[in-house]
Amino acid sequence: MNRTPLQAVVLDWAGTTVDFGSRAPAQVFVEIFRARGVEITNEESREPMGMSKIAHIQAVTEMPRVAALWEQTHGRRPTAADVQSMYDDFLPMQREALRTGSDVIPGVPDAIEWCRQRGLKIGSSTGYTQALMEVVSPLASQQGYAPDALVCSDDVRQGRPAPFMNFRAAELLGVFPMSAVLVVDDTTVGIEAGRHAGSPTVAVTDTGNLMGLTAEQLAALDESEQQQRREAIRQKFIAAGADFVIPSVAQLPELIEQILSC
What we know:
alpha/beta; Rossmann fold; DNA polymerase, domain 1; 2 domains; 6-stranded parallel sheet; 12 helices; globular
């Protein structure tokens, strides 16, 4: 990792800073496929998480099991028109789900304030569109989280794992080089996007898509089960190129202190 002094942190939204467990989008993906007679699993719903939402839907339709079910139900494989139709249904359903699924994750406001006190700028990126973030951003702000810059999937020509949202966030923040921008995400494609941008990357395990549990569900697991799940997730993030892995953004200040002391 390049040890250029840090100037900024760019954080994902769902599963990283809001919506513990990234629950809101996962269920809507299940519902839009179910409405077309195709039952997808929670794991299939979550696998492409972090991409733009239309790319996410496309990726699910290309899964062999899902494509076979679709053909069995409809007599043909899913088409681009099917993907667009599901995306058109997804947007209002997701917007409604976000009204109650955008709670800021515990510890995030304090961690962000710590970063600001040390001169770090705060950017953000998301697979949500600007229209969806019109719901999320005000709710997060009311709970104490308001980044300096927001980049959505429809602000760039290609979403994650391409690096363009990170480039755009750095531009809005007025920071460079990208090695001075710490990218924080809860999905493997988000980590890949940070790596492609040339930035150091931080993956979060407990609050994100790969764990996929509410805070209460996670706390209900015994310590051994929690550790087993964390380790399995950590290995996936390391394979995706993560430089660091932490349980949640609440641990970000301690990690940054370690980075700056190197």
